[in-house]
Amino acid sequence: MAYIRCFLKSNLAGLSCRRQILKGDFIVSRTVTLWFVTAILIGSFSTTCVAETSEQARKIAEENNEAVVTVQLVIETSMSFGGETEKEENRISVPGTVIDPSGLVVSALSELDPTKVFSTFMEGETDSKFTSNVVDVKIKSADGTEIPADIVLRDRDLDLAFLRPKKAPASPMKFVDLSKSATPQLADELCVLYRLGPAAGRSLAVLLQRVQAVVTKPRTFYVINGERFGCPAFALDGKPVGIVVMRTAPGDGRSMGMFSSNQDMLMVVLPCSTVLKAAQQAKEASPEKPAEKPATKPAPIETPKKN
């Protein structure tokens, strides 16, 4: 009997142990399953968010396609350094945004006027001088139409330039309504629109950028990364945030130079409200007179010598 009792206890203990093992296997299996399901849900949510962002960006591009234009300029530049002067004529294309049905276009002055960038880097160099004169300006619309235009206002502090068609358009132009603006927060995603070069047929391009910093003094602007200045930036709900411009560090020239830190020059979005204030002045401003090309002196006519 003692042997039987011992045998039964041994088997019951083994059965209890196997039950505990099976129970542990069930818990581990259930935990792994929960992890797997959670990973699938997170992946699905992430994919859904990306799809929604892409859809919102496509909608913004479609609605504002005709308001994103290219500004074409012919510029005469003159650079003096070390007592030597070089002159040349350049043709450049820069981004622009139509902000009024009259055809008023805003762009970044740093794109239109190379002297702004060069002057920033060469500040403090007493023996250097860089000047530029605009000879011709055209607004190239989304359908390829070239509209003769004038520069009507330059704001070096804001890095803004405004252009206006020489003749009023026959019908109101598509424009970005800056009065219906959005105010982004830190880390919010923005949709920046610009046009590619002639190799891509001036196709509209989209760039998604996050707000890296919100600066409020001395004026509000939003720091981002990007490709070009003068482009419009939108919140994902479709409302405009502002225009992308260059922001340089204020100072007396000692902080700038050819080897200055890239922190001294930032790509920022200037809020719509700031751009609108400058635009009011541009609407009333007189157009700049384009630089005249120097007249070519005719070659002197040689008179035959009398024998």
What's the layout of helices and strands?
Blueprint: H1 2-64, E1 68-81, E2 84-98, E3 105-108, H2 109-112, H3 114-121, E4 128-140, E5 146-155, E6 160-165, E7 189-195, E8 204-210, E9 213-215, E10 221-223, E11 232-235, E12 240-248, E13 265-271, H4 272-284
Antiparallel strand pairs: 1-2, 1-4, 2-3, 3-6, 4-5, 5-6, 7-8, 7-11, 9-10, 10-13, 11-12, 12-13
Could you please describe the fold and organization of this structure?
About 30% of the residues lie in helices and about 35% in strands. The protein has about 300 residues and is an alpha+beta fold. It has a 7-stranded antiparallel sheet. Strands 1-2-3-6-5-4 form a 6-stranded antiparallel beta barrel. β7 (about 190-195) and β8 form a beta hairpin. Mean pLDDT is about 80; it is low at about 1-15 and about 250-260.
Distance between the ends: 159 Å
Considering DSSP H and I runs of 4 or more, what fraction of the residues is helical?
A: 25-40%
How many helix segments? 4
Give Rg in angstroms: 32 Å
Spatial order of the strands forming the largest sheet:
8-7-11-12-13-10-9
Low-confidence stretches: 2-15, 252-259
User: Under the CATH scheme, which class?
Assistant: Mainly Beta
Number of strands: 13
List keywords for this structure.
307 residues; alpha+beta; 13 strands; 7-stranded antiparallel β-sheet; disordered N terminus; 29% helix; single chain; 6-stranded antiparallel beta barrel
Can you summarize this structure?
This protein has 307 residues and is α+β, with helices and mostly antiparallel strands. It is built from 4 helices and 13 strands. It starts with a helix and ends in a 23-residue tail after the last helix.
